[in-house]
Amino acid sequence: MPITFELCPGRMIGGNNPCFIIAEIGQNHQGDVEIAKKMIKLSKEAGADCAKFQKSELEFKFNKRALERPYDSKHSWGKTYGEHKRHLEFSHEQYRELQKYAKEVGIFFTASGMDEMAVQFLHDLDVPFIKVASLDTNNFPYLEKTAKHGRPMVVSSGMQSMETMRRVYQTVKKHNQNFCILQCTSAYPVKAEDVNLRVITEYQKEFPDIPIGYSGHETGICISVGAVALGAKVVERHVTLDKTWKGNDHEASLDFSELAELVRSIRTVEQAMGTGAKTMLPCEVQCYDKLGKCIVAKTAIPKNTILTLDMMSVKAGYPKGIPAEDLFELVGKKITADVGEDESITQDMVDKYVKKAKF
Questions:
Q1: What is the rounded distance in angstroms from the CA atom of residue 225 to the CA atom of residue 231?
Q2: Which among 64, 119, 166, 182 has the fewest CB atoms less than 10 Å away?
Q3: Domains contained in the chain, CATH given
């Protein structure tokens, strides 16, 4: 069983704890703090556990030429890539404002730290955990410094190999026990055939002492629900107010009605997972009493007869007789009362028969 740990104050993940659901607002707020606040509130109302953003210190994330290059995409917010990114980047003070608002709303608040300085800021901000985006998962100096902060970590694995993820696990584990890895495919939106949910089970085998989760970029909710059925303990999905808005992530995002349905579906699947113990449940007794097969006398059987197989058959009988699965156990046992043809053979009619518990 994977270990459990406290990802956020009072909120354990892993083991039999409920799946932790992250509403990834990212930069789908269009650079507007009021839109961001609305999305935080709607995330809470939909039932998500956490509202998450993306924080960058642009001069540490990009080199100068990357920021200065022309950016004429239909998603652009400026003439250069730097202008575009600056439009979408909230200041430190705006982050404090959003953190305060999330606390008022009653939802956990954090962000992906997109460079080492952003991680330092988030650590100083005292977020409950740091998200490592897929693009930094193979950035081992970054991983090591982030792990050394001692704050819980959620690490996505888009674009990586299993060999790289083993190194990631070893690097983080050396400094920080409280982390989980998410299966992820970095395409927006991702096609179903590229999701590769079976990686979740492979991660569970490779890293049995940490929780495993799923970060999805597909459309709809069914694949994310499937991830939970496979054992994902964290699910992260992008959210948006409008899938047609400017920005690469909107098309691969859920609207808030879909997020609410995802939360409901995950909670239903969690209830349905059960204990793994297979037995007749109390809710099945009514059906069993009405339709369950039992052993009846094929012909009249006098008292003190030693039972043979050809004396008995299996039918839905009334009153309920000995269960069908015990047919062969009755062979060679003695009948202690007269049994009429087609009558149920009950427990008290057979010498030395002990009825097995059904539930």
A1: 10
A2: 64
A3: 5-273 (3.20.20.70), 282-349 (3.90.1210.10)
* pLDDT digit string, tens, across residues 303-333: 999 999 999 999 999 999 999 999 999 999 9
Q: What ranges make up the beta strands (E) of the chain? A: 5-8, 11-13, 20-26, 50-55, 108-113, 130-132, 153-156, 179-184, 212-216, 234-238, 294-297, 312-315
Q: Is the peptide bond before 319 cis (omega within 30 degrees of 0)?
A: yes
Proportion of the chain in helix, strand, coil states, percent, rounded to 5: 40, 20, 40
Residues 285-309 as b or e (16 or more Cβ within 10 Å = b)? eeebeeebbbbbbeeebeeeeebee
pLDDT tens for 203-254 read 999 999 999 999 999 999 999 999 999 999 999 999 999 999 988 889 999 9
Burial (CB < 10 A; 0-12, 13-18, 19+), residue 101, is middle
pTM (2 d.p.): 0.91
- 48 by Cβ neighbours in 10 Å (0-12 / 13-18 / 19+) ranks as buried
108 residue type, one letter: F
- Calculate mean pLDDT across residues 97-111: 98
The rounded distance, in Å, linking the Cα atoms of 7 and 334 is 63
Omega before residue 189 within 30° of 0, cis = yes
Locate 99 and state its tokens. 């953190």
Which residue's structure tokens are 């979740």?
A: 200
* Residue of 94, 10, 28, 73 lying closest to 254 (CA atoms): 28
Contact 79, 73 (CB under 8 A): no
d(CA 205, CA 141): 26
Return d(Cα 327, Cα 202) in angstroms, integer.
43
- Residue whose token pair is 């998410």: 182
Q: What's the rounded Cα separation, in Å, for the pair 296 and 345?
A: 5
Q: Single out the residue of 8, 5, 113 nearest to residue 54, CA to CA.
A: 113
